[in-house]
Records
---
Amino acid sequence: MIGDTARMSSAWTEPDVDGVVEELPSPEPSDLEERAGVDSLEQLQTRRRMLIENNTRLFALHGSFGLFDDFRKQRVEAEKIGARMRLTKEGAKVTEAMVDAEAYGGELSGYGAFMDQALSDKIEYLQKLTEISEIEESIRSREIELRAYIAESGLR
């Protein structure tokens, strides 16, 4: 519910230059927002900005035109180099299939852990994206509620 300000924190945190999070006072809603019983636009926009600012790495990797696939390919190539070196050191006849198998799933390969972390990051990205979408929906809904409130006030 848009007018439900109980879910909005009376203060929010924002990282400073050193990455230290400081608590800032929540902006007060305008008189119109208060009378209409809607969330403050400034509060909603600030929450949205903070979600984006605090999760820029996730958005850069997994968002539109994200760089995750580039990082994954770099990781695979590094794992292949390591696998080829280990297999050569063991004196085995090295084939591309052996290198691939070792790079993607060998005991010494870190690719599995890398992909597990990527999955966790992608889930967190989707959760943050959903939060941002919900805030944007609240902003749109709030505008409609304000227009309705103003129209009703004019009829009285």
---
Amino acid sequence: MRLALLPLLWAPLALGLTPPANYINTAVARTIELVGSTTQITTQYNIKSTSNTPGEYYLALAGVGEDGPAWYEITVGGKEVIGKTIKAYVSSCPGGRGLMNREAPTVAIDLGDIKKDGSVTLSLTYVLIHASTPLPASIEQKDAQYLIWKSNSTYVDSWYPSDVERIKIRQVTSPCPPSDRADRQVPITQDSIYRNSSQDLHSRLGPH
């Protein structure tokens, strides 16, 4: 089994109705696991406050104009938290005017009592159904099988600037073991890794 990646890049929108710039993502690590008809995505954010009263952290669940996941789990410092769904928009028009406004699925997260330069770790996990497709749809047993994973970007959507990002796309397969040694079956993983640094990273949703 091999992995075929077809990233569909789009330029970030620079202006719009966005959260205040009270946080910075000092590091973002995302792992995308392709397992048959399901895709599990786990993203860890190392977050630093730039204010003594930063307020809630706006966590983007998807990009502009995309649907949010049907199920997701958020933890802060290892403890599960419940986010508050909000309406946050980006726009290509100054001041957020015009018909180009589009919503990015977002939840507001209480990070607790965090002061300027304080840091916290947030983790987001969600599952997508039928997000990857086999190519070709059917094969002979001896033929190579590929998976197509379509993404709007090789960046993580966020309302805040990020210093460093690392995205790992992992395909998990389970080869058929010899019939007399079924206990020897182990998953095989193949990874594709994307790294982005501060020289080409900025907020993917906000104007900062």
